[in-house]
Amino acid sequence: MEKKVYMDYAATTPLDEKVFADMMPYFSEKYGNPSSIHSFGEDAQEGIIKARKIVADFFGAKDSEIIFTSGATEGNNAVIKGIVMSRKIWEACGGKPHIVVSDVEHDCVLESAKRVMKDGLAEVSFAPVGSDGRVSADDVQKLIQPNTVLVSVMYANNETGAIQPVQEIGRMITRENEAGNKKIYFHIDAAQAVNYLDCNADALGADLITISAHKIYGPKGVGALYARTGTPLAKFMDGGEQEFGLRAGTHNVPGIVGLGSAIAQLENYKEKNKEIGRLRDRLIDGILASVSRSALNGSRENRLPNNVNMRFEGAEGEAILIMLKDKGVAVSTGSACAAKSLSSSHVLKSMGLTDLDAHSSIRFSLGRQTAQEDIDYVISAVPGIIEKLRGVSGSFDHSTNLSQADEKGSKEEGSVFFG
Amino acid sequence: MYSKEVMDHFQNPRNMGVLNDFQAVGNVGNPVCGDMMKIYLKISDGIIEDIGFETLGCVAAIATSSMITELAKGKTLEEAEKIEFKDVEKALGSLPPVKLHCADLSVQALRKAIGEYRNTNS
Q: B97, exposed or middle or buried, with CB in 10 Å at 0-12, 13-18, 19+?
């Protein structure tokens, strides 16, 4: 069979076998509705209680502070919208609240923030990042206003793996709260961090943390929201009283059990994570050594051990991705060009990359099944691909003065419009 | 995501590269979407005798530039000017809607090269 190498663990991970086994009984054996009070319901409820305990322990939290969701996107929507829609919040700040999010947040945070701004529910400020893709606590602090109620900064970036100084931001917010006798809530989107970093809520100074199971070798469609006791959140799904009255809807029992199991497995992979870090460095060094005019986006320091995001001058990300696909290698572009949007990655551009540099970027993300021979296979495949694409791009390089080209090329007579 | 024809032109681009003795070049680019194209022309008796391209861009940008060089080669300037993005799309089987602008970009590059030839040879 043709060689296949999966290097897109930041997109999603395969389900852990043990997790799968733990989930199995909850499909057709313990199928009761956990809200039912008969024995079938109790069997299902037992699985949820166990999972909630595991997740709570992971955050150093109480069981009642864990709300199961469909994933980090739902959790992040629930946090951003739920805070600014909370009556308590409006009363406390005597009018429209203000929130701060970083420029490099996942779209589900950025779009939620833009939504509440558009709907007149909140003012929003965006914290910049440096060339290493990291937010600074100072920059966040400068954006804080008297009506600021929420700061949302991710733990680690999904595109660049940049680990944000969330502990520092947490401490800064605690000081602000103490000095001003007020309460700014701190939310951390930890979706990419759970595999590798400590998520104790007190150590992070976090009031809200969101995670997804499918990033940690658990099932898709389930996640959790940690909400510190007393955090005002508007109910985000109306219906029944499930999840402490915040999120109505019959529980995804197998999924929730799978999330708990996935978190329970994490501690078995501490050594493996170190090896992943070594493989990451081997990949970065191997590509830098074999491909001229290539560069790592972001720094190696404060980077998740599984993330490699590189740019290749004279080649475009999607073209590289499709050529790697032909060689059995699965990666992602830094650009969203391959998907619905044509604009380049907002994360890379926030770091100061030009459009062309951002468009020439590729994300390799490693995981538990990544072997050294996979790394070496990729290192051997990349130079030929870049060479071929540079043959096609010929005289274009990234110093090409775009004013020489007709920038309006497609727009000028672009009355041809494409719906 | 891409048709067989698109993949074929992406993997085996036709008329790739700069022409040694080109008479005109059309250089267009859309940095926001990351695609840059140059089309080189060699004209003889009003006919596109030879054509070449250089493209920095996505799969669709490379495939549409390759395809438009095939469509234009051997045609008169008047005929080549009439090539529309729909012709390029059709010749490639299909393009994802979000990539139609690549076909348009290739048309603009060709027309710009023809315009440049006319400006310098009239």
A: exposed
